[in-house]
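Re: that chain you flagged

S.,

Sorry for the slow reply, it's been a week of failed gels. I finally had a moment to sit down with the sequence you sent. For the record, here it is as I used it:
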Amino acid sequence: MSLDSILSTLAGMLRGAPEALKGRVLKGLLRSAYKDDLTMVYHYISMLSEDYHGVSLPYKADGFYKTYRDKPSITLPEPYAKTGVDVLEAIKSRRSRRKYSRRPLSLAEVATLLYYTVGIVGRAWWGGPRRVYPSAGALQPVEAYLSASRVEGLEQGLYHYNPGEHSLELLKKGDYGLELASIALDQEHVGEAPACIILTIVYRRTASKYGLRSYKYSHLDAGFASQNIYLVAEALNLATVAVGAYYDEELCKLLEIDCEEEMPALMFPIGGRA
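Prediction finished late last night. Pasting the structure tokens below so you have them in one place:
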């Protein structure tokens, strides 16, 4: 694509845009040129100020979580109510751990991890689900998938977690550990773990309310849910690590999702401690 085409496309996008937004784009471009960092464009257009409250985007929310009604569903056991580990102890002892034992995870461990990552704990005053993680505008953009290689009582496969029913929906059968390791830039520990939780962001849920600021908010949501994985793994004496280096489009292809509509956020290989 030529530079003229890029500039023409940008001009077309900004035609009719508020002057405040045009000014933000220009400032972002100038700072991008100065710092040699294109993220400055989004950095400036997503800021709020007294004379600029952002711009709305043409999205509508699509509910609070996905379901795959046409897929086989496995009801999970109740999550553990307590483990005997104090939350302050878990925060202090939390580590990124990349070595896993060969023992399979139990289905109860998996159920506990998923529930306390993105599970529904009740209903809010306005009728929507109340989650275990805080969410901007209570729009709840985070989805959780499970790649199961060695989980007792669970067939090897790729699953989606349905928080409304506390169940797993089987998307495809097979052991995808080595494929996930390849997608994660050949990080071997990803393929060695008995299971891997993959968090994604359904961007339009947040963008339906917060417009251009939504990239910030939705990734914060994913961060809150991710810390839950770390702390629950610590409480269960398990090992995990957040993996952010992966080939996005390849991961979307494996999950069979649209990378623009649903963005991969982090992968968490999980297992017993070696």
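What I noticed first: The chain has two domains: 3-45, 73-272.

Talk soon,
D.
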